[in-house]
Design brief:
OB fold (Dihydrolipoamide Acetyltransferase, E2P); 5-stranded mixed β-sheet; single chain; 10 strands; mainly beta
Protein backbone atom coordinates (compact mmCIF):
# COMPACT_ATOMS: atom_id res chain seq x y z
CA UNK A 1 0.00 0.00 0.00
CA UNK A 2 1.53 3.36 -0.95
CA UNK A 3 2.23 5.78 1.85
CA UNK A 4 0.23 8.94 1.94
CA UNK A 5 1.78 12.11 3.27
CA UNK A 6 -0.54 14.08 5.44
CA UNK A 7 -0.60 17.80 5.18
CA UNK A 8 -0.03 19.67 8.43
CA UNK A 9 -3.25 20.66 10.13
CA UNK A 10 -4.65 23.84 8.67
CA UNK A 11 -5.83 24.90 12.11
CA UNK A 12 -3.86 25.37 15.31
CA UNK A 13 -5.72 25.11 18.63
CA UNK A 14 -4.36 27.60 21.16
CA UNK A 15 -4.97 28.75 24.71
CA UNK A 16 -5.47 32.50 24.97
CA UNK A 17 -4.10 34.04 28.17
CA UNK A 18 -3.39 37.48 29.61
CA UNK A 19 -0.22 38.95 31.06
CA UNK A 20 -0.20 42.62 32.12
CA UNK A 21 -3.39 43.44 30.19
CA UNK A 22 -2.01 41.96 26.94
CA UNK A 23 -3.28 38.76 25.34
CA UNK A 24 -1.00 35.95 24.19
CA UNK A 25 -1.57 32.45 22.85
CA UNK A 26 0.24 29.11 23.11
CA UNK A 27 -0.43 25.82 21.38
CA UNK A 28 -2.68 23.72 23.58
CA UNK A 29 -0.86 20.49 22.73
CA UNK A 30 2.11 21.76 24.78
CA UNK A 31 -0.02 22.37 27.88
CA UNK A 32 -0.57 19.42 30.21
CA UNK A 33 -3.22 21.16 32.32
CA UNK A 34 -4.39 24.53 33.59
CA UNK A 35 -4.80 25.05 37.33
CA UNK A 36 -5.79 27.93 39.56
CA UNK A 37 -2.92 29.96 40.94
CA UNK A 38 -1.67 29.13 44.40
CA UNK A 39 1.12 30.85 46.32
CA UNK A 40 4.50 29.19 45.99
CA UNK A 41 7.33 28.56 48.42
CA UNK A 42 10.31 30.77 47.54
CA UNK A 43 13.59 28.99 46.80
CA UNK A 44 16.76 30.67 48.16
CA UNK A 45 19.38 31.68 45.56
CA UNK A 46 17.04 30.79 42.70
CA UNK A 47 17.22 32.36 39.23
CA UNK A 48 15.06 35.48 38.81
CA UNK A 49 12.55 33.66 36.61
CA UNK A 50 11.75 31.11 39.34
CA UNK A 51 8.84 32.34 41.45
CA UNK A 52 9.05 29.33 43.76
CA UNK A 53 7.76 25.77 43.99
CA UNK A 54 4.34 24.23 44.60
CA UNK A 55 3.05 20.76 45.37
CA UNK A 56 0.97 19.40 42.51
CA UNK A 57 -0.64 16.14 43.62
CA UNK A 58 2.47 15.03 45.50
CA UNK A 59 5.00 16.29 42.96
CA UNK A 60 7.05 19.41 43.63
CA UNK A 61 7.11 21.58 40.52
CA UNK A 62 8.79 24.93 39.85
CA UNK A 63 6.71 28.00 39.01
CA UNK A 64 8.19 30.08 36.22
CA UNK A 65 7.24 33.75 36.01
CA UNK A 66 6.22 34.00 32.34
CA UNK A 67 6.03 37.78 32.65
CA UNK A 68 9.75 37.87 33.52
CA UNK A 69 10.58 35.39 30.73
CA UNK A 70 8.82 37.62 28.19
CA UNK A 71 10.44 40.77 29.57
CA UNK A 72 7.12 42.40 30.49
CA UNK A 73 7.01 44.99 33.25
CA UNK A 74 4.76 44.19 36.19
CA UNK A 75 1.40 45.82 36.62
CA UNK A 76 0.47 46.86 40.17
CA UNK A 77 -3.16 45.77 39.81
CA UNK A 78 -2.47 42.44 38.06
CA UNK A 79 -2.62 39.33 40.20
CA UNK A 80 -1.94 35.91 38.76
CA UNK A 81 -4.99 33.66 38.57
CA UNK A 82 -3.80 30.64 36.56
CA UNK A 83 -0.86 28.33 36.04
CA UNK A 84 -0.16 26.57 32.74
CA UNK A 85 1.42 23.20 33.58
CA UNK A 86 3.95 22.30 30.86
CA UNK A 87 6.47 19.51 30.30
CA UNK A 88 10.04 20.09 29.14
CA UNK A 89 11.38 16.62 28.46
CA UNK A 90 11.11 14.74 31.74
CA UNK A 91 10.61 17.92 33.80
CA UNK A 92 7.25 19.48 34.64
CA UNK A 93 6.83 23.14 35.52
CA UNK A 94 4.15 25.76 35.89
CA UNK A 95 3.98 29.01 33.96
CA UNK A 96 2.32 31.79 35.92
CA UNK A 97 -0.12 33.93 33.91
CA UNK A 98 -2.58 36.58 34.99
CA UNK A 99 -5.60 34.87 33.45
CA UNK A 100 -6.57 32.16 30.97
CA UNK A 101 -9.32 33.45 28.69
CA UNK A 102 -10.32 30.59 26.40
CA UNK A 103 -9.31 28.02 23.81
CA UNK A 104 -9.59 29.05 20.16
CA UNK A 105 -8.67 27.76 16.72
CA UNK A 106 -6.41 29.83 14.50
CA UNK A 107 -5.66 29.11 10.85
CA UNK A 108 -1.96 28.26 10.52
CA UNK A 109 -1.67 30.42 7.42
CA UNK A 110 -2.69 33.41 9.56
CA UNK A 111 0.42 33.04 11.76
CA UNK A 112 3.18 35.34 10.58
CA UNK A 113 6.74 34.54 11.58
CA UNK A 114 8.63 37.55 12.98
CA UNK A 115 11.80 38.64 11.20
CA UNK A 116 13.52 39.84 14.36
CA UNK A 117 16.85 38.14 15.01
CA UNK A 118 17.01 39.34 18.62
CA UNK A 119 17.58 36.49 21.10
CA UNK A 120 14.55 37.60 23.13
CA UNK A 121 12.34 36.92 20.10
CA UNK A 122 13.13 33.20 20.45
CA UNK A 123 10.02 33.00 22.63
CA UNK A 124 7.87 34.23 19.77
CA UNK A 125 6.84 31.56 17.25
CA UNK A 126 4.73 34.05 15.38
CA UNK A 127 2.05 36.70 15.47
CA UNK A 128 -1.55 36.00 14.57
CA UNK A 129 -4.75 37.95 14.26
CA UNK A 130 -7.88 37.00 16.14
CA UNK A 131 -10.72 39.26 15.16
CA UNK A 132 -9.19 42.74 15.62
CA UNK A 133 -6.44 41.69 18.04
CA UNK A 134 -2.82 40.81 17.27
CA UNK A 135 -1.62 37.99 19.50
CA UNK A 136 1.90 36.75 20.09
CA UNK A 137 2.21 32.96 19.73
CA UNK A 138 4.53 32.00 22.60
CA UNK A 139 6.93 29.09 22.03
CA UNK A 140 6.60 27.14 25.29
CA UNK A 141 9.60 24.97 24.40
CA UNK A 142 11.79 28.09 24.36
CA UNK A 143 10.67 29.44 27.76
CA UNK A 144 13.62 27.69 29.38
CA UNK A 145 16.91 27.61 27.51
CA UNK A 146 19.29 24.69 28.14
CA UNK A 147 21.27 26.99 30.49
CA UNK A 148 18.06 27.90 32.33
CA UNK A 149 17.22 24.23 32.74
CA UNK A 150 20.66 23.58 34.22
CA UNK A 151 20.26 26.55 36.60
CA UNK A 152 16.82 25.32 37.60
CA UNK A 153 18.06 21.77 38.21
CA UNK A 154 20.66 23.18 40.58
CA UNK A 155 18.08 24.68 42.91
CA UNK A 156 14.93 22.55 42.54
Amino acid sequence: MPSVEREPAAVCTVVRFVIAHHEYVAEIERIREIIFYRPSVPVPHAPAFLEGVIDLRGRVIPLIDLRERLGIAGSPDARPRHILVVEWGDRVGGLVVDEVRDVVDIARDQVQIPEAADTRSRLCRGVCRLRDDLLLLVDLDAVLSPDDQVALAGVV
